[in-house]
């Protein structure tokens, strides 16, 4: 497979390892990459490139540009291997193509593993680098290199310092509800009510309801004074909103199905997978928006594996909700 890639950004070491294992050539490598892969004959400083890879501005994935045919091969290699990678084709013509790939929780974890085969790497390395790149690099170079046996302890320490220490009861967190096409919908901020670092679980209250429109899926009108109790666990395929009237009367429950939820110091982030589960106070439960997920799969945004995983998650949530197993609080 004679494809030549130029890679830059926080995912460089992991992706270099990935593509070298697949038989591709890495061109114009940085000095760091040359030193890390000095014995690999597929590192070539002088060959022209077929495609380039760099970080998205958000750090949540990569932007790929290049000739259409090799770029399609590169994209396919990633989407086949990284089951939750989100593919957004931005432009293409006979000579130039542009594709954006987002790396949610599982993809970042797989990239962490690949990087760890090359250099000492903390758990959640790529997510933590989005938060504090220099600090993560320092901890790995100064501490982890010297004490690889302390990887689990150091990883927990860094995650607590960068994420969990930033949380306190009363703090407001943003919820980044990322659509498959790349739009980021910021839901109303949630005030932290409960924080459970051991279970990696948060409970928030959201109050910014103006009494306009209806609640998605429930088809019930919003009223001024309504509020939601949002319960979320890092690494789950869903999270839950319980909607209430001002007087505490339950309106209904909405389980959002999404890529595994990621926690950041000031926000929660996930990619919405369209399909959801809704419950009414009378006990009726429905899976909704299956067709939305199907359309996004047909358009190439998600792999068949991710589509099936989202459908399975919706079915699991529905069955668990019937048994009352999803009431976190």
How many separate domains? 3
Instruction: Tell me the CATH topology of the largest domain.
Output: FomD barrel-like fold
Largest sheet: 7 strands, mixed
Provide the helix percentage: 25-40%
Tally the helices: 8
Q: Give me the Rg, rounded.
A: 22 Å
Q: Going across the major beta sheet, what is the strand order? A: 3-2-1-4-5-7-6
Query: Which structural class do you get from the secondary structure elements?
Result: alpha+beta
Structural summary, described in words:
This protein is an alpha+beta fold and 329 residues long. It folds into three domains: 4-106, no CATH class; 120-162, no CATH class; 168-322, FomD barrel-like fold, CATH 2.40.380. The protein is 31% helix and 32% strand. The strands form three sheets. A seven-stranded mixed beta sheet has the order 3-2-1-4-5-7-6, covered by helices on one side. Strand 17 (267-279) and strand 18 (285-288) form a beta hairpin. The protein is globular.
What does the secondary structure layout of this molecule look like, with pairings?
Blueprint: E1 4-7, H1 12-21, E2 25-27, H2 31-36, E3 43-44, E4 51-55, E5 61-66, H3 68-81, E6 86-92, E7 97-102, H4 105-116, H5 125-144, H6 151-162, E8 172-178, E9 184-196, E10 201-206, E11 214-215, E12 220-221, E13 227-233, E14 238-244, E15 250-258, E16 262-264, E17 267-279, E18 285-288, H7 290-298, H8 304-322
Parallel strand pairs: 1-2, 1-4, 2-3, 8-17
Antiparallel strand pairs: 4-5, 5-7, 6-7, 8-9, 9-10, 10-13, 11-12, 13-14, 14-15, 15-17, 16-17, 17-18
Helix pairs in contact: 1-4, 5-6
């Amino acid at each position: 497979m004679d494809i030549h890639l130029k890679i830059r950004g926080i995912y460089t070491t992991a992706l270099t390892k990935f593509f070298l294992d697949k038989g591709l050539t890495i061109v114009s490598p940085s000095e760091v990459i040359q030193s890390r892969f000095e014995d690999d004959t597929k590192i070539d400083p002088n060959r022209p490139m077929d495609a380039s890879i760099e970080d998205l501005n958000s750090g949540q994935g990569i932007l790929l540009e290049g000739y259409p045919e090799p770029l399609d091969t590169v994209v396919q290699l990633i989407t086949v291997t990284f089951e939750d990678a989100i593919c957004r084709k931005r432009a293409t013509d006979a000579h130039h193509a542009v594709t954006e790939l987002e790396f949610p929780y599982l993809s970042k974890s797989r990239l962490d593993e690949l990087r760890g085969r090359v250099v000492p790497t903390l758990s959640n390395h790529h997510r933590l680098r989005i938060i504090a790149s220099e600090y993560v690099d320092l901890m790995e170079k100064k501490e982890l290199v010297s004490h690889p046996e302390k990887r689990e302890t150091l990883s927990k320490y860094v995650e607590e310092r960068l994420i969990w220490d930033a949380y306190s009861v009363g703090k407001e967190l943003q919820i980044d509800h990322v659509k498959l096409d790349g739009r980021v919908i910021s839901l109303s901020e949630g005030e932290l009510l409960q924080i459970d670092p051991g279970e990696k679980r948060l409970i928030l209250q959201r109050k910014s309801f103006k009494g306009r429109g209806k609640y998605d899926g429930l088809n019930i009108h919003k009223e001024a004074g309504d509020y939601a109790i949002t319960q979320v666990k890092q690494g789950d395929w869903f999270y839950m909103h319980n909607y209430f009237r001002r007087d505490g009367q339950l309106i209904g429950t909405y389980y959002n199905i999404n890529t595994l939820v990621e926690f950041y110091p000031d926000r929660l982030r996930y990619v919405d997978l369209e399909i959801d589960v809704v419950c009414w106070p009378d006990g009726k439960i429905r899976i909704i928006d299956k067709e939305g997920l199907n359309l996004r799969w047909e358009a190439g945004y998600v792999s068949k594996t991710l589509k099936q995983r989202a459908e399975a998650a919706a079915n699991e949530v529905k069955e668990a909700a019937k048994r009352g197993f999803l009431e976190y609080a």
